[in-house]
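quick q for whoever's on today - can somebody do inverse folding on this one?? i tried earlier but teh output was garbage lol. tokens:
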């Protein structure tokens, strides 16, 4: 039994396809299949049912996979402890970030982070909050950047910024004439929302008074992009709510409306599993992000945190 065989086993369980698992492990499909088969022969167990209904772990295989994940986690933690003792910021950083934050925050810090630590390989994925949380627990991500609090005791949160919600209003909408917004002003008429699954959508609906579905229109549009919502507002008589980083170049526009104090904000944190030991890397990442943020967005503002759960 080798660590490589355990890695192949876990990849096969994660992807449930030999071809895809092999691609993720950067080996050929026959190589991965042969190594998994050798492991089965050594253990004297069938680990996966290979049927026309799809690849599934057997009852015994599920137990072996669970233990294999634990072994690989401990091996990775051992490597990280060694790197920590040597003072090295090297290896791989697997970072998950929510789509409503990624286009506005990643370009601010990614190049600087790699420039400071050229031996660090950074892999960034845009994922929704639930996916990031699960993958942090599965140890297939190292760090998440997402909206908190999460109310999950297995995860540690390090707040980084508090980002205000702003109105983005077309000239033809009644809210356009207001100097500042209040939650009571928000209703379903003309409101454009992100599609289901985005935490920002839930926060917007939690902020509305009362929460309401989108107004009846002769058409619907399920968008996963804040930029698309902004363009819809520009071309219609509707409005939407946006995070402040998405309108940094438009803050003087009459379309952008602030809320009356206390401003509603979303708390954004770096999130790791409690077993994460590369704390200097985490602090470096936080410092790089903070250095690139407008000061008014940093944690500690007197805002009203809007929950997404």
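ok took a stab at it. sequence:
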């Amino acid at each position: 039994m080798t660590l490589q065989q355990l890695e192949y086993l876990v990849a096969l369980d994660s992807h449930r396809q030999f071809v895809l698992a092999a691609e993720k492990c950067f080996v050929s499909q026959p190589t991965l299949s042969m190594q998994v088969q050798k492991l089965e022969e050594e253990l004297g167990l069938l680990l996966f049912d290979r049927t026309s209904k799809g690849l599934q772990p057997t009852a015994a295989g599920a137990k072996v996979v669970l233990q294999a994940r634990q072994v690989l986690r401990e091996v990775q933690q051992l490597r990280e402890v060694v790197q920590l003792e040597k003072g090295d910021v090297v290896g791989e950083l697997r970072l998950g970030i929510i789509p409503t934050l990624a286009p506005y925050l990643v370009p601010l810090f990614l190049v600087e982070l790699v420039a400071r630590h050229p031996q660090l390989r950074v892999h960034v994925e845009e994922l929704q909050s639930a996916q990031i949380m699960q993958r942090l627990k599965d140890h297939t991500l190292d760090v998440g950047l997402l909206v908190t609090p999460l109310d999950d005791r297995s995860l540690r949160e390090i707040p980084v910024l508090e980002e205000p919600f702003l109105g983005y209003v077309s000239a033809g909408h009644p809210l356009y004439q207001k100097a500042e917004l209040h939650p009571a002003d928000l209703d379903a008429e003309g409101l454009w929302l992100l599609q289901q699954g985005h935490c920002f959508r839930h926060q917007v609906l939690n902020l509305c008074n009362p929460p309401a579905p989108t107004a009846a229109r002769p058409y619907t549009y399920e968008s996963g992009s804040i930029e698309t919502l902004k363009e819809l507002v520009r071309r219609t008589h509707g409005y939407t709510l946006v995070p402040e980083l998405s309108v940094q170049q438009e803050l003087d526009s009459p379309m952008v409306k602030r809320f009356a104090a206390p401003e509603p904000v979303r708390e954004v944190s770096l999130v790791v599993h409690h077993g994460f030991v590369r704390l200097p890397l985490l602090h470096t990442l936080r410092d790089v992000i903070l250095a690139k943020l407008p000061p008014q967005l940093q944690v500690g503002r007197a805002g009203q945190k809007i929950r997404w759960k």
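fwiw The mean pLDDT is 87. also Residues 3-84 form a domain with the Arc Repressor Mutant, subunit A fold (CATH 1.10.10.10). so keep that in mind when u check it
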